[in-house]
């Protein structure tokens, strides 16, 4: 007897005011014996016949009474998929505008078989005749995303994704109602303990991508928020640290080394709690404080040594030299905290 294939993937397509391309894609997917779930994101009556034709082809349909955005449509679909197919192995998300072909969707599914616990991304090559907004939007977000998360992804904007079943409950709770949701999912990869697998796909733009709602500035700001929160935390801690250092050095006339150590002891507590709960969303677990203070000790010894040594070889006071020293340590500390201290 032939062994039954238990690997089950649902293709989820959110659609707002779709055209006949959605019917064609649904037909192709059903011919491959795939489960298809469409989310009508409030397109109203003029578009109901398109969804009804898809239903007749065998697709399941979830409906929003009013338009709620792509992020909400994806979460509605993911929740419905878990209810309709409780034994599913994963979900492939695809766009309704013709940018994702059957061939590429099948390639994503095959990669999901090989990597059942990873997020699979259908990554486009941004070469040749690529619309300006797409080319530079991807470059901006790719660079800033890598800086903020430590994860390198060649196509941060792709809507063709393979989501493992183990991560879907967490993905349903991620913030974002519109196009920012897909970026928020990437920013939460560490929290979900998901690796990333990229699969090259065909690059297709309809009418020079004029229908795209992607905004590179908006999405870059979403990612920059992680760095801005870290900057705020560090500036606040630095202000506390420098004020205490100045008081110890200038008012109480303590030695630079002792002044540095006392100031850092107080400011490190401020910095730890701000970073843990504001910047890195509570990541790191019960051992994060131990790792943080191991870093703080090394950073403190290095900083104290430099503020003690540099004034002896450079024409600069101990009170002033602390600023460039701490700026250099600030940058190094961000990457260490991101990848080691608060790595869930």
Walk me through this protein's architecture.
The chain has 2 domains: 9-214, Spore Coat Polysaccharide Biosynthesis Protein SpsA, Chain A; 224-341, no CATH class. The protein is an alpha/beta fold. It is elongated. It has helices at residues 20-31, 48-56, 70-84, 102-114, 132-149, 168-172, 180-187, 189-192, 216-251, 256-279, 288-313, 318-341, and strands spanning 9-15, 35-41, 60-64, 90-93, 118-123, 161-164, 195-200.
How many structural domains does the protein architecture include?
2
What share of the residues lie within helices?
55-70%
Find the count of extended strands (DSSP E, 2+ residues): 7
CATH T-level fold name of the largest domain: Spore Coat Polysaccharide Biosynthesis Protein SpsA, Chain A
Give a short account of the largest sheet.
7 strands, mixed
Query: How much strand content do the residues show?
Result: 5-15%
Any idea what the CATH architecture of the largest domain is?
A: Alpha-Beta Complex
Mean pLDDT over the full residue set? 85
Strand order of the largest sheet: 3-2-1-4-6-5-7
User: Which blocks of ≥5 consecutive residues have pLDDT under 50?
Assistant: none
Q: How far apart are the first and last residues' alpha carbons, in Å? A: 44 Å
What is the rounded Rg?
25 Å
Global geometry: elongated
Specify the CATH class of the largest domain.
Answer: Alpha Beta
Order of SSEs, N→C?
EHEHEHEHEHEHHHEHHHH
Assign the structural class, choosing from mainly alpha, mainly beta, alpha/beta, alpha+beta, or little secondary structure: alpha/beta
Q: In DSSP terms, counting alpha (H) and pi (I) runs of 4 or more, how many helices?
A: 12
**Fourth-level CATH superfamily of the largest domain:** Spore Coat Polysaccharide Biosynthesis Protein SpsA, Chain A
